[in-house]
Amino acid sequence: MMIHNHGTVDDRLVSVSSDAAARVELHTHKEIGDGVFKMMEVEDGFAIPAGGMHGLARGGDHVMFMGLTAPFEQGAVVSVTLTFEQAGDVVVDIPVDLERQPAKDAHAGH
Fold first, then answer.
1. Mean pLDDT of the region 13-33
2. Domain coordinates in residue numbering, the chain
3. Which pLDDT belongs to residue 30?
4. What is the reported pTM?
């Protein structure tokens, strides 16, 4: 998912929520040494520069759903609220795609 900031002021995605899970967090992967990567919450969120964008993807910055209220089903839609410092709450509907494969090099060396 690409988040576009069409405004003239820098913004920041600070949190995310959804009824689909007990807890939803902003996460990233960080190298902790010797080619080992650890997934961790990003409490400060993700900067979205004015006129720019920020991508969310497997193996990088992403949204983590924990304690699903029901299994994700192929073709279903999950409603997610993205909360930004400047833009406030933005609700997006995300289609569930359980058949999508990660990029071939998404976890190379991890």
1. 93
2. 2-95
3. 84
4. 0.83
Which CATH fold would you assign to the domain 2-95?
Immunoglobulin-like (2.60.40)
Comparing CA positions, the residue from 76, 59, 60 lying closest to residue 68 is 76
Residue 7's nearest CA partner among 83, 87, 84 is: 87
Write the burial class of residue 25 (CB in 10 Å: 0-12 exposed, 13-18 middle, 19+ buried): middle
Q: How far apart are CA 40 and CA 19, in angstroms?
A: 22
For tokens 């983590």, the residue is 64
Three state DSSP letters for 30-60: EEEECCEEEEEECCCCEEECCCCEEECCCCC
Per-residue pLDDT tens over the stretch 52-100: 999 998 889 999 999 999 999 999 999 999 999 999 999 999 999 888 7
40: which strand partners? 28
